Amino acid sequence: MSEKVYDVSADWAGRAHIDAAKYGAMYEASMRDPEAFWAEHGRRIDWMKPYTRVKNTHFGPGDVSIRWFEDGTTNVSHNCVDRHLETRGDQVAIIWEGDDPSESKKITYRELHSEVCRWANVLRNRGVERGDRVTLYLPMIPEAAYAMLACARLGAVHSIVFGGFSPDSLAGRIEDCASKMVITADEGLRGGRKVPLKANVDAAIERVGGVDHVVVVRRTGGAVAMTPGRDVYYDEAAAMVTDECPAVEMNAEDPLFILYTSGSTGKPKGVLHTTAGYLVWASFTHQYVFDYHEGDIYWCTADVGWVTGHSYIVYGPLANGATTLMFEGIPTYPSISRFWDVVDKHGVNIFYTAPTAIRSLMGAGEDPVKRTSRKSLRLLGSVGEPINPEAWEWYHRVVGEGRCPIVDTWWQTETGGILISPLPGATKLKPGSATLPLPGVKPMIVDAEGKELTGAAEGNLCIADSWPGQMRTVYGDHERFVQTYFSTYPGKYFTGDGCRRDADGYYWITGRVDDVINVSGHRMGTAEVESALVAHPKVSEAAVVGYPHDIKGQGIYAYVTLMAGETPSDDLRKELVAWVRREIGPIASPDLIQFAPGLPKTRSGKIMRRILRKIAEDEFGALGDTSTLADPAVVDDLITNRQNKR
Ligand code: WT7
């Protein structure tokens, strides 16, 4: 672990919203009296009817229910759009930077209002009402934000599916929340390559019924099949409606969106976030973690298909009246300097990306960075996976030229927004540590039995009490919510992450302790990849684990047992990779496939993943006790045939 400490500069401490003393006072106040603390900070958004009740949350055992500001009413779209019209109608809300550097545009708050209203009218004309679920399968174009805010305006619940997921994955998500409408584009464009979004939607709808309307944004203008009566081009529908549409008064606890995420078992679960608590949290954390000030140009490089895009491209920044940059492309197209070219082109002050991007750019050396100015940059952020100290130092020294603090933000789809992170004017930085909890967040490290460990300690990370941005349930399956998050350590929210706390009280996230792997900041359930593999006719059994990967953080390592009579070959390996891509999507492609005549199982038939993980990690000496295996000899075979890392 890195021992280096970076102090807060006097400059930062003086200018930031929160310095060290203020952080201490806020944190203490939030722990002493959460009701009073959030009664005050809940007012950062506009309310139609103010709340009188602030916190009503229960982590069990028994009742698990989470309600914040429960008798208040508001509307998220009003807060992200309408309330800015008077003060900053002509300020840019969204800077859109296309995949092709010659394409970009700026949308003011006034234009955003007009677009969102028009979108809402198009949706409403097709029967979308409060509470209905709408699936979005879109590229990174402003229409994604318009459609999200249009749903929020009507009280409809959006479910965004990342454009890299396959028709099958999309179908499963449409079906789970019974969406009657899908919003997509003809094609997406990333790194100069086209993504057949509309064709994927057609294939998905062939597998599930119930979709009455498909709204298609023209992005590339490519020819796509349109089913009469079901499909409509957005521009044609929009020409028939006005750009005025009132925002519906929503209860604080009405659902805002569902976002599917992988767990350690079963199919992805629909994480449900509600209206007011989520928005308060997204806006509070966006302001303080990024020390956002009026006029700043802010860029988060995530995709809106992930929670980072929801909270820190759309909802947090727009609730704060910020200028948020939305990027359609990838860091390496048309050149490896693209991120920094975009920073210079738009004068970006705050830049938020993932460690995997930093590591891959690091591989190309300093020249592609140094050829750009980056003088507008003031703050850098990291999210999605642990950032190794080497990548941190490079980000700090080369990208930020030593002058920009790095906020390493730890959070999850479930948490709605950042929970553990430095505040740039308050927190000394240690490369590789997410540092300290934000006000309102009470982390707890527990041992395997659930006993709280105090002081410097390492164990599993729980959160002891609720915060406003917390997920409320698994859509349609509250029991799964309770089981997944509140049963391992009754009465506490279990994050699934391992964590160390050092003598300064700093938190160091060590990675998942369950069967979830983190590939390039994307979360993947090993069980999902396994079930895709065993669906292949030549596969009899599969076990999937993560292994350390230089760029991706973790890679996907699959042990595959073939059906009797099938022969291992490189062609079959390729066939299986293509199969998984088709079943789940490219992000689930196994990096390494090892054909294994047998898997290490206990006498009761349970696969011992601990052993498979160690072999994938090249830690042959640390296999532990193998005497309980039904056939200990399979381990020798697995070691002999270990696939080489790429
Ligand atoms: C998992 C959540 C947070 C939004 C994007 C990912 C890992 C996330 C960090 C960080 C170490 C991190 C955790 C977490 N993670 N941020 N700064 N340091 N690990 O959201 O897909 O829900 O994944 O990502 O393991 O549990 P997600």
UniProtKB/TrEMBL annotation:
Organism domain of life: Bacteria
Keyword Magnesium applies: yes
Keyword presence, Amino-acid biosynthesis: no
Residue positions binding ATP: 384-386, 408-413, 497, 512, 523
Family, similarity comment: Belongs to the ATP-dependent AMP-binding enzyme family.
Alphabetical keyword list: Acetylation, ATP-binding, Ligase, Magnesium, Metal-binding, Nucleotide-binding
Database matches in InterPro entries: Ac_CoA_lig, ACAS_N, AMP-bd_C, AMP-bd_C_sf, AMP-binding_CS, AMP-dep_synth/lig_dom, ANL_N_sf
Species for this entry: Salinarimonas soli
Ranges for domain AMP-binding enzyme C-terminal: 528-606
Binding site for CoA: 190-193, 308, 520, 581
AMP-dependent synthetase/ligase domain segment(s): 82-466
Reaction catalysis annotation: acetate + ATP + CoA = acetyl-CoA + AMP + diphosphate
Residue numbers binding Mg(2+): 534, 536, 539
Protein name: Acetyl-coenzyme A synthetase
CC cofactor: Mg(2+)
GO molecular function term, any single one: acetate-CoA ligase activity
PTM sites of type N6-acetyllysine: 606
